[in-house]
Structures are given as structure tokens and as C-alpha cells.
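Work through this:
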Amino acid sequence: MAWRGCLVKWSRIESIKSQNTITSSSRFNPYHQQRFGFRREAKRSDTKRGNETQEPKASPPEPGTPVSQPPPKIRRPSLLRPLMFTVGFTGCSFGAAAILQYETLKSRVQAAKDGEELEKLVMGSQDMAYWHDWWNQLSGLQRQALLLMSMIDDFWSSLTEGQKAVTGIIAINTAVLCCWRIPSLQRSMIKYFTSNPASKTRCLPMILSSFSHYSIIHMMANMYVLWTFSSGIVSLLGKEQFLAVYLSAGVISTMVSYVCKTATGRFHPSLGASGAVMAVLAAVCAKVPEAKLGIIFLPMFTFSAGNALKALVAMDTVGLILGWRLFDHAAHLGGALFGVWYVAYGHKLIWRKREPLVKLWHDIRSPGSKGSKPGSGGGSGHP
């Protein structure tokens, strides 16, 4: 393009010096027309004129017709499959929790027997010189690794049963948060880790979105609340039952969100563990309403757990009615109502009726054994 510009400049100078030269001006006229787009504009205007003459034939001339303002016709999705998935997943969660409790109690009994035998062996060989020589034979790196493992074991032993139970949940949420930062995974993350009733994939995201956070602040807030109430909920329900309630609450809260979005026609994706966390918070607050709570940045202000639950439910109800889109208020309400219902009625209707399943599993695992079955009673002090 540079040499063309030089020719244009040179032609202009020559045209000023010799204005009566016609050949020079006629030589560069076609170039000027192409550069400035005269000929192209003529072609475009012709096509536009052709389109203008053809458009009135295809569309009706009356203004205000549906063609001039076509409304987006979004077909209301069917919620039968998500409903069946919710019922099936909830049943499988509590069934797996009952089996897990059986296996946990069985392993504890076996560990107690092994511990007694190991204690006898240690008491029989109390030779400190042997262990001293063994320690001296280790390299410096091996000693550092053993000390690090000892520190991790001490930290893990200092945690409560509830904090140990939610550690895995926090780790999964952190891994999913990191996956959101990988550009090549964006399409898969949106498809499977965000819940939307208008999406083609509706069932699997109901549980996966409960472990999905795009904002670090959002995840930290949810995990802080879960960590705070973990000890209380596990002391009330036990570790296995808590996991079943948490997973079921994530699916049920998403199902409530699906129903509200379908009824209002506001289809937008949602993600986060807020529904499941609200179930845990509501269960503890409903079971121990007189407990005192506070705010992390305002420790001087305290309030009862019952009042905190009422305030949260009222705020989410107002947000749902007014159509606030800052949070998924329908999922919050669904999780909170499920948590309150479970500690009031669900525990008796679901968990206390797990005896046939545990008996069946015991017969499968031990076909020839008879007698008492681990997990058939209360289990972990939680009848």
C-alpha cells in the first residue's frame, strides 16, 4: 500500500504542474474510486435498493405486528425428570448413609480388637534401644517427613467430628473453583456445574452445582458458615446422616429453584452451596433456637439462632416476591424449609426406618452370621 500512496502523491503533483494533461488524471481516476470506495458504494446501494424492494413483499407492512417485535417463545421445560431424580437421589443418599454407618461401626469394632492385640505386642517388646537405633538410621529427609506427618496428625486429631466431615466438602468446592479458572473447561463447567431448568442437562447439575462457586468470596462465605455449624449438626445427626442431609438438601433446593423459575419464566443459571448450607443452618437453629450467634466482623452484636433463622427466611421470601436476582432466594428457602422439616419430622420418618435396609446389607455381607447387626440401633449416639 505504500507504493500506491507514493503514486497517488506523485500524480497529484503532476496534475498541479500540468493541468492540461488529461492522460495523467484519467490514469489514476480508477484507483481513486477504488480506494475511496465510490464503485463499491454504488454496488452496495444497488443491493440495498434491491433489498428494500423485496422486504415489503416478505413482511407485512403494518407496524406493531408480531413480526416487527417477535417475542422469544421459550417453551416451559418439563420438571418430571428432575423431580424423579430428586426423589431417587434423596433415597439413595440416605440408603448409602445407613450402609456407611454400618461399615463404620463394623470397622471400629475390628479396630478395637486389633488395638488390643497390638497393645499386647507393644507391651511384650518395650525395648527403647531398638526404636532409638531405628530413628538414628533414618535420613534427615525421612525425619522431616515423619515430623510433618506427625504435625498433620495432631492437627487432624484436634478437629471435631463435624469439622472432619466438612473438610472433604470444602476440598471439593475448592477444586471446582479452580476448574472455573481453566478456559478450556468453561463450556463443560457451564453445562454441568450450573443449574438451569431451560438447559438440556437438568438432572446432573442439580447436585454438581451444589459444589460449584465462581466467586472466591461466595465460596468462602458458604464454607465459613458450613464450618461454623458443622460441629452442631454432626452432634445432632451424626456424620453419616449429616452427609445424607447435606447432599439431599442440595438437590431439593435446586428442585425448588427449578419450580420457581419455571413458574415465573425467569430462566437464568444458578450455582453455589447456599441451599445445602441453609439446610444445615436451619436445622441447627430450629433444634437449638436459644443458642447465641454473632457476626464475625461485629462480635459485640449477638442474637438468638431462632431470630437469625426468621430474619433469613423473611429476607429470602421478600427477595423471591420482589424478584431480586442477587441470590437464588428460592433455593435458599427450599434448603431452609427442608432443614427445619427434617429435624422436626424427617428424622423419624426416614432415618429411624432404616432397619430393613441395614439388615438386608448385613445378610449380604455376612450370609452365615446371626445376632446383633452394627448400625441397626441408633448408631453413634443418634437414634
